[in-house]
Amino acid sequence: MTNKLPLLVSFGALALLASSCGAATSVATSQSPTAAASTAASPPSVSAPVSKSSSPATSASAKDRITADQIIPTLSRPETDEDMPPAEIDDPSIKQVSFRALASLAYAEQFAAVNDAGDLCLIALANSGDGDGSANLNGPGIECDDPAEVKDEGLSLRIEASKDNPGVVLNMLPPDLTEDVVRTELLKIPGNHEDLRPPVEFGSTDFGLVSVAMLPETADELGKISIPRPDGTLFSLDLD
Question: pLDDT tens digits, residue range 18-73?
């Protein structure tokens, strides 16, 4: 009898050990699909692609920038004697070599130029327009803006008259307004016939840029002129 008890204990221990191993195997087996699913659900880490949008956008912005010579093409050619203003323009910010004559008008001597900031400038002297070679000039008036703004809105300046000096309200229109369209609208103004000196005068350069000029009192009376644009909108020429 003394020999059988250890044997029974040994068998019990083996059974307990086998049971523990089986339970551990069962737990490991039950957990392995979850672990596999977790592994499958987690995609491999991939570095985010580097965005290339900033560089082309910057390049496109620079490419699309409006410059003064896109509105005044004569800025791209050498200046001529006709481009020299009849009076000294002493604004130090204006590049003297950039003066270019615009359309000849009875009411004003007008020029385009560029300043140190790259803005496009309208420069004018009011002309008494006597037509006998003794015209009196008054000014200059200078108005500058970014070429992109000039492309959309044009440029306007006003020189007030005095007892001995003429005045003028001058408008360099946006480049999308053609001479034919401007003529049609201006001839609707009562008394604005195309004679030597109409109340509202207009002129066009050989590259199609239109200017409109009048006396300050005429501008005050009219207040505003609306001109159709090619896109179907109206350009409002505010005169007062």
Answer: 444 444 444 344 444 444 444 444 444 444 444 444 444 444 455 478 999 999 99
**48: its two tokens:** 């985010």
| Distance, CA of 186 to chain centre | 29
Lookup: tokens for 191 = 């008394």
CA–CA dist 147, 102 (Å, integer): 16
Nearest to 221 by CA among 199, 236, 188, 193: 199
DSSP 72-112: -GGGGS---GGGS-SS----TTB-GGG-EE----SSEEEEE
The phi and psi torsions of 208 (rounded to 5 degrees) equal: 95, 5
Out of 87-91, 99-103, 197-201, pick the least confident. Answer: 87-91
Output Rg (C-alpha) for the chain, integer angstroms: 41
pTM across the whole model: 0.72
Confidence of residue 89 (pLDDT cuts 50, 70, 90): confident
What tokens appear for 155 in the block?
A: 């440029």
103, 204 in Cβ contact below 8 A? Answer: yes
